[in-house]
Amino acid sequence: MPITPVADLVRAAKGQITTLSLEDARAEADAGRALLVDIRDVRELAKTGRIPGALHAPRGMLEFWVDPESPYHKPDFATDKRIVLFCASAWRSALAAKTLQDMGVENVAEMDGGFSAWKDAGLPVEQA
């Protein structure tokens, strides 16, 4: 049996999650209503920079950091703020947002276009 292409998984996830525009994600974060969470690999941050104030949570640890029963739980995720995930181009973040929804996280979204779109729009970036 052939595997399901990742593009199909991403498309299906995007049909079931909330996607915020760059402007809306930034406005919610600036207003204190959202926690921007960068799920890219640490090497990506070092190479391309990061969004000031965004929490870094590597994709491989995200579920463990979110789960309050996990020994790896991070208190940053015990929040009433909307968790807005982003990666480089909004593929990993779509899958991650769907996974968090499946875990029962209700206030989660992804940022449209990811870090690449943020940087291309000239929005603030700092070197990691």
From TrEMBL:
Identification of the protein by name: Rhodanese-related sulfurtransferase
InterPro entries: Rhodanese-like_dom, Rhodanese-like_dom_sf
Keywords attached to this entry: Transferase
Domain spans labelled Rhodanese: 30-127
Alphabetical list of Pfam families matching this protein: Rhodanese
A molecular-function term among this protein's GO annotations: thiosulfate-cyanide sulfurtransferase activity
Organism encoding this protein: Palleronia salina
Keyword Ubl conjugation attached: no
Residues that span the membrane, as ranges: none
Stored SUPFAM superfamilies: Rhodanese/Cell cycle control phosphatase
